[in-house]
Every structure is written in structure tokens, then in C-alpha cells.
Amino acid sequence: MTSQTRDAGRRQPRGACGGGGKRKGRSKKWKELLRFPHISQCMELQNYIGERDREDYEVTSDEKRKSCGERIIRRFLTAQRWQTYMDSGADRTWNCTPPGTSSATAEGAYPRFSWYPRISLYPRFSRYPHFSRYARISLYPHFSRYPRISRYPRFSRYPRISLYPRISRYPRFSLYPRISRYPRISLYPRFSLYPRISRYPRFSLYPRISRYPRISRSPRFSLYPRISRYPRFSLYPRISRSLHAYLSGPPFQAYQESMYYERFLQWKMLERQPVTKETFRQYRVLGKGGFGEVCACQVRASGKMYACKKLEKKRIKKRKGESMALNEKQILERVNSRFVVSLTYAYETKDALCLVLTIMNGGDLKFHIYNMGTPGFDPGRVQFYAAEVCCGLEHLHRESIIYRDLKPENILLDDNGHIRISDLGLAIKLRKGDSTRGRVGTIGYMAPEVINNERYGMGVDWWGLGCLIYEMTAGRSPFRANKERVKKEEVEKRVLEDREEYNDKFTEDSRTICKMLLAKDPKQRLGSKSDGALLVKAHPFFRSINFKRLEAGILEPSFVPDPRAVYCRDVLDIEQFSTVKDVKLDHTDDDFYAKFSTGCVSIPWQNEMIETECFKELNVFGPHGSRPPDLDWDQIPAPEPPRRRLLDRLFRRHQPDVSIGYRRMSSSMNSVDSITHSAP
């Protein structure tokens, strides 16, 4: 299965790509296709919302990855006092700040959190109820040493009273014994606790502050010399944890009792509607896989384009590939990463099982390496692609999944120049700390332990990353030249015995990372340990990559595919599959088909609704925030009559005649009975 979504449909008709305008290829009846069921039909669904569906409430700063559930709960919080909490917790740009700007980001964050008393960063301050109203005090751990403040309620009205020198006039309330030694100083505001005091080292109350002249310019930060050393890690994680802990309490309980939660159930009901071939428009063939073709398709309701990977039922049964096909589907369904192709729908037809995946219009890396000028890429482009592949492998390994088939053909580019890992047919999920065995993969990219049929773990994927970096840099595979005709045994011998050669295209960093990733001994290979991804990211080869910004989708790629170019083979060059004979399908296969065709995948489907603006146009309520008819419990609609079948529609014109004849006959019988009973 070497071609999944790489040969994307650049030659689609204009209508296939959705055309222009707001609707972008939606069906004229798209609102009917996405019509909300009445809330009375959705309440049973709340008992089946599991842990996987709770991702819908996760707060994220990535606009492209927000779910319907989060947007609905945000709308609920807009009308409540908790909205500012939600906005503050969603801002996670602190984790993606470029070097040198983290201090400014931290300084700009403090005022936003300064008036949230319940988000206390220092729990021990909760013992002082007089100051619990003033969140600014909760940020100053130095005041926790002075419990006597809480005894004087008349000073509790001034949250920053301890910063004023007027207190020093009262010996009983003096917080700083050292000030009392200098009575004259206490009368002059210029010698107060403000940063100007750092100009006078003798009278500095906080010697540590004077070491940080930049901090002394800002009054709010004058008490935080330790925080200034770690502006990105000291405050935000604790605020985020406190924020989520608070929002999961009374705000979420109030949300579950509101009409907004009922609207969320309506969206979940739409998500669970049956998926058939009528859900899509089918377009040209893009390529082929091991069990069938890959074609472009478009969702009728939203107009979004996808790649549909069709697995022929007879071909699967002939090759006994049921477990392999189901394994790929379940892994794709489990992984939700911007660096791995996403599965949005899984359904079946009479002859095939279909996986609807992310369409990648930029072609695969092999096409770009060998067909776009001189073979290979420049160092910056190699670093960018290698970093994104590293993130994709990290996300797979986090789920205990080994990819086992990393090669340029399986790395695809999207319209914006970002890559995704595709074709997870050979991937396998392991238990934590476990290993596996099996000679699977592609000749020339399999690690030595795979060739020797030894037990292996995640290290085989880092071997594949080394092969990929080498090929992107040198313009050839490390153990076989492009289009070189060589036997399988010879390639395996080179992998086991030969050392790769490096030309002048390799920098010192690229040469060292390739040598470390292509180590024959898996124990000596970079990334083979439990924290492998972190060690690979820490290599000097990636020193110019900010991985936090990369994972957030902020970094711009150095190459963006031309929307007018075609990065794939012509449709006539794609070989056709032969017909499978002597294989019959029966009811014993129904259990496997039922496990495979599960319909929509939650988060990708919700992202589709948001990206195509279907969510924005459908998620409306009544005037002034009132309940719309589909959420009104007083307007429960009557059950719809069953739709007439084809024969009923064809012969419906004869039915009135029959009913009229029946009425005439019954009326005549009644008249006869009346005459009989009236006779003497």
C-alpha cells in the first residue's frame, strides 16, 4: 500500500473543488442533510458520551483544532461571569514564544490574571480570608510570612497597603523591621518599596531585586526575582491547572443544565448519523493501494474534499487481510495529530470498505526529491520536513504505535507545504515497554534488527528517519541509488555490513545525526530509549527549529506547492486492478464489516463542520438568546410517517379509487342493514 493520498486531485473540475463563494461545493439541500433532530430525540445520548468525547471540552489556542463542544461551551460562558477565565486559559502563546520575547510575554500576562481571586497560585494564602478578595496579594508569597495583617480588617480594603510607607508610621503594623530602623526614610515616599529604591543599595529591602535592573522598572514584578528567571514556566502551568479545576466545577455543572449542552447533544446526534456512499461525490482515481484504489471525493453536506481509500472486500478476503485492514482503521481513528493523516469517515459499500482520509494536494516527498530539479533539498527544507516527521513519530510513539514503513513515498505535502505521515497499514500498537518481531517494511529502509528477524521497538522508526534525512540531503537512498537494479539480498547485505557515504552536501550536523540514527546496533541508535523523541529534538541539527511553534502550526514552511502544478502521475499511468475471482462473500464476514464501518470520527468531523463554516451557520439560537423550536420541550413534533416505497409511489393514483369503492360498498351494505332492521 504505497499510494494513499499522495496523487491528489489537481485535475478536478472546478465544481469538484467546491467552486468559489461561501458554500464551496455544498449540496443545495445541505441544511436538510444537517438538520438538527429535536432535543427529545437526543437526551438518551448523554448516557453514552464517553471519555473520548470529553476532548470536545478541551481548551486550546489552535483555531484550526477547536471542537464544536468547546465553541458551544464558550458561547455559554459568554453570557456568564466565567468567560474571562476561559479566554485567559486558552491563551497558550507563552509556550510558543520565540527566544528573547518570553519576558515581555510574561509581563503582559500578569495583569490579565490579577483580578482572579479563585485562581490562587499559592494555596497557603487561602488561610487569610481578608485578603482572598485581592488576587494580587495571592501572587506575593512574601506576605505569607505576616499573618498579623489578617487581624486588622481596616487595612484589608487596600490590597497593596503593604507597599505604602505610611504603614511604617505605626510600629505595631510594621511589616519590615529593617524600615523601623530608619524612621526618617519611612516619611519619604521616594524611599518606599517601589523599584526606585533599587537606586539606593543601602536601603534596599530586597537585595535580590537590585540584581535585576530590568525587573526593578516594573512594580508588579519587583517581588518576583525567581519568576523572572523562568518567565515561561513559573506562572502559566499553575494558572492553567487552577483554571481547569475551577471550570470543571460549578461552571460545567451549570453548562450541563443549559440549552447549550442540549445543542451539543444535537451535534453529537448528527455526528452519529449513518454514512453511506450517498454522503459523498466521487471523482477521479488518485492512485492505488494494496487492496484497492484511492480516489478523490467530496462531502455533499459541507463541500470538503477528501481522499477515499477503497479496500475491496474480495481482495481482502483472498489475501486474509482482515486484521491488517482493521488495524489500520483503528490506529488512524485513535491518532489525532497534525503530522499524521486523519481519518474522518469509515463506511462500507456492496463491494468495498472505505476510509475517508485527509487529501494531500502537494504530492509525496519522493516526487519532490527526484522530479523537481536537482535531486535533494536545501538544508533548511530538510530540517523542516525532518522536524515535522519527528513530531509525527513522537505522537505515534506516545500512543505506543510503531510505524515501521517510513520512506519518502509515505510522506505527503498539503496545500500549505506541511507534511503528514500516511499509509499506516504496517503500523502496530504495542503494550507499554513491549517489543515485537516481524520482517515488514520496504527494502532499503528496514532496520538491521528487522532484517535479522529480531525483536525490536520504537528504534526502527528512528532508523527510517535517518534514511529519510540522508535521502533528502544526498538525493539518493543510503544503501541504493535511484533506479538502481539490484537484488533484494544485496540491498539487505549493504544495510547489515556497509557504511553509508557522505558527500559535500552534508553539513557537520546533518552528517552526525544521520550517523547516530543509522547506527547498526539499536542500543546505540539515537532515539531508541524511552524518551527518544526528546533526544532527537535536542540534537544540534534542529537548533534552528522551535518545536513548540512547529507543533502549534505557527512556523511557515520554506516551500509552498503551486496550486496550478500537478505533483503526481497522470490518471492513465495508474495501473488498474484485475478482477478477483473464486472468492465469495457470505454472512460470516458481517461481523468484520460492522467493526470497520463505524461512520464519523468525532474530532475530525467536528473540525470539518468548523472549517467549512457549517457550524457557524447552523449553531444559531432564538432571538435574545431564547430557545429555538428544535430545543423547545413544549413543541415536541409528532413522529414523521414512514416514507412510501417505490411501488407505493408508482401505484398511489389507484389507491383512492379502491378506497372510494370500499366506501361505496360499505355504505351500500349499511343501507341494506338499515332496511332489514326497519322491516316489520
TrEMBL record:
EC supergroup of this enzyme: transferase
Domain RGS intervals: 228-265
Gene3D superfamilies: Phosphorylase Kinase, domain 1, Regulator of G-protein Signalling 4, domain 2, Transferase(Phosphotransferase) domain 1
Keyword tags: ATP-binding, Kinase, Nucleotide-binding, Phosphoprotein, Serine/threonine-protein kinase, Transferase
Domain AGC-kinase C-terminal intervals: 543-608
Residues in coiled coil: none
Region (Disordered): 1-28
GO MF, any single term: ATP binding
GO biological process: regulation of signal transduction; signal transduction
EC number(s) from the headed UniProt entry: 2.7.11.-
A Pfam family annotated for this UniProt entry: Pkinase
Occurrences of domain Protein kinase (ranges): 280-542
Signal sequence range: none
Superkingdom per UniProt: Eukaryota
Residue positions of the active site: 405
A GO term from the CC aspect: cytoplasm
Family: Belongs to the protein kinase superfamily. AGC Ser/Thr protein kinase family. GPRK subfamily.
Protein name, entry field: G protein-coupled receptor kinase
